[in-house]
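Handoff note, outgoing to incoming analyst
You'll be picking up this chain. Sequence as last confirmed:
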Amino acid sequence: MDSTPREIPENLWVRCTRCGEQLYVKEFEKNLKVCHKCDYHFRLSAAERIDLLLDPGSFVERDADLEAGDPLGFVSLGQPYPKKITETQSKTGLREAVTSGSGKLEGMELQLAACDFSFLGASMGSVFGEKLVRTMERAMATRQPVVIVSCSGGARMHEGIFSLMQMAKTTATLGKMAEAAIPFISVLTDPTTGGVSASFAALGDVTIAEQGALIGFAGQRVVEQITKQKLPPGFQTAEFQLEHGMVDMVVHRREMKPTIGKLLRLYRGAARYAC
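Most recent structure output, in case you need it:
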């Protein structure tokens, strides 16, 4: 389902893509882009995620200068990969699919990375992986917790094996973080699929799914074709994943910041006790 709000003329209203309710834009935004009738969570940009979670004015972006290379000389439908990147940057105002940096959540310092689906489906390429690894390395150097807000369509085909290598790269760095006892809170939003769901996103010390998010590896139709079985209702929803032990909790968007804040305070208390 396309979660991009369908705008009605004059841009004063948007229509919920789930229930069809007309939503007044100012109230829709005040409600964190959640439908007041059916509680459907629309997708947020990386910037909106950062504003949602961090204290105002506390975010400092890191590694913003990193840009994708073209290791394969990839061309699709006559368009070279570098041209596709430039076109996407111009369209979205972003340099990459993930924005990373440091900030404060309820006064507590942390390292944060947030994905943006509008940039090539938040596909994981080499720069995506490098930015996450640098975020984790800063966390180990400063002994600050890491929060990663994931959404992704999977690996970036334009970079081939270089993209797939990011699964191992991010996972190995998380192993070092675990050895150093640095907390990692993984937040899964709509959609979190492919190589992202199969690597770092599933390895949080606490894994939180946003209410209603689609979470899984391959799409439902692909799974049904391979297994030759009809999948159960709600397959790959956040609630289904919680019921089957794949995530630790499902949280409404308005409760996301206080929930993460509570977890961070618990970790801080445990660290002081351990010392």
